[in-house]
Backbone:
């Protein structure tokens, strides 16, 4: 039986932006629809599929769900400006306002840069779903500000590997902890893994860190860690070896932790 990815994602807490990457088809459409519903749902478990928000989302008539890029024309910079103006008008009915950008990978660089600004400083109630066939065509700056959901057949149907989840939890714990030695040991081990395994652990670490924040982990430390993990994860896509990536992650975390210490000594 297929996992309900939308329910799982919503259960972890919805992010303000997702890239939904995969071939066009009913699976991807379905996920987009269900995620939209989760944003505007007023039920307890989101999406509940029974509240008025969910029903309107399913019918495609919710006033706070806006789809851009329905025509064959690529989304241009003017479209993004119009979207920005619309985003600053508060939602009509729901707590959130959701923008679905279809074929977002064909946005030219100026449009992507305009979009980047909106992702960075848009209103807190606005949420963006960038629907693409291949996220590789999006600027890395855009990718770093969105959570990536890949619709690969495997990723969609296979339950998460407990081994990966455990390693990700351990990494998240060590990144947030105070022992540099513990983190260094982890990274030294991770440097010897296959690159794909490290990539999977880093992806899972993003979820582990977010979960931790929901359970009261230090917000500043978690956000720093999320940024560090996403940055190193991105580098793995550009042929960086597992050894280099693990070493870099360790160095980044270390440098991030030292900064306040140096400041304290200096003052
Ligand atoms: Zn609902």
Residues:
């Amino acid at each position: 039986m297929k996992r309900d990815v939308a329910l799982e994602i919503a259960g972890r807490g919805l992010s303000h932006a997702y890239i939904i990457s995969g071939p066009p088809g009913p699976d991807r459409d379905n996920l987009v629809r269900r995620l939209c519903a989760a944003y505007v749902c007023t039920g307890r478990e989101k999406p509940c599929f029974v509240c008025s928000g969910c029903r309107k989302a399913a019918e495609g008539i919710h006033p706070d769900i806006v789809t851009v890029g329905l025509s064959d024309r690529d989304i241009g910079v003017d479209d993004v400006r119009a979207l920005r103006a619309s985003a600053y008008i508060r939602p009509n009915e729901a707590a959130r306002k959701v923008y679905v950008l279809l074929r977002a990978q064909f946005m030219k660089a100026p449009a992507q840069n305009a979009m980047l600004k909106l992702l960075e400083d848009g209103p807190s109630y606005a949420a963006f779903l960038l629907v693409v066939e291949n996220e590789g065509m999006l600027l890395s700056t855009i990718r770093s500000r969105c959570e990536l959901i890949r619709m690969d057949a495997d990723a969609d149907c296979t339950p998460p590997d407990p081994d990966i989840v455990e390693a990700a939890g351990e990494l998240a714990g060590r990144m947030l902890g105070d022992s540099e030695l513990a983190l260094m040991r982890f990274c030294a081990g991770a440097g010897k893994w296959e690159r794909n395994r490290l990539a999977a652990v880093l992806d899972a670490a993003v979820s582990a860190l977010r979960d931790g924040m929901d359970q009261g982990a230090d917000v500043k430390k978690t956000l720093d860690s999320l940024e560090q993990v996403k940055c190193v994860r991105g580098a793995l896509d550009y042929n960086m070896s597992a050894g280099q990536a693990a070493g870099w992650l360790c160095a980044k975390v270390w440098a991030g932790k030292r900064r306040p210490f140096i400041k304290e000594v200096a003052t």
Summary: The beta strands are 17-21, 65-68, 97-101, 126-132, 147-150. Residues 41-43, 47-48, 51, 53-54 surround zinc ion (CB under 6 Å).
